[in-house]
Specification:
Elements (H helix, E strand, L loop, with lengths): L2 H6 L8 H13 L1 H9 L3 H10 L1 H21 L1
Length: about 80
């Protein structure tokens, strides 16, 4: 791995690791809320899930931008 790859946090030819790890951690954090939403989808339950897991929701919302950034920095 070259010095520029280390600075950018990516490996040549592989999947970007940071967005994938953040996605998995956010889904693990939201696991119970997603099960509850699957059973009873209401505006109140969506609001409660967002308010109690704001960081995980923010990570999920930012996923497309993260993937775009890390794919572009590899090229």
């Amino acid at each position: 791995m070259s010095d520029s790859d280390r600075r950018e946090g990516t490996r040549g030819g592989g999947w970007p690791l940071l967005p994938l790890v953040l996605l998995v951690l956010a889904l693990i954090d939201l696991r119970v809320e997603l099960i509850l939403l699957w059973d009873h989808l209401t505006l109140t339950s969506i609001n409660a899930a967002i308010r109690s897991h704001l960081l995980a929701v923010a990570v999920l919302v930012c996923q497309p931008s993260l993937w775009h950034h890390y794919r572009r920095s590899r090229s």
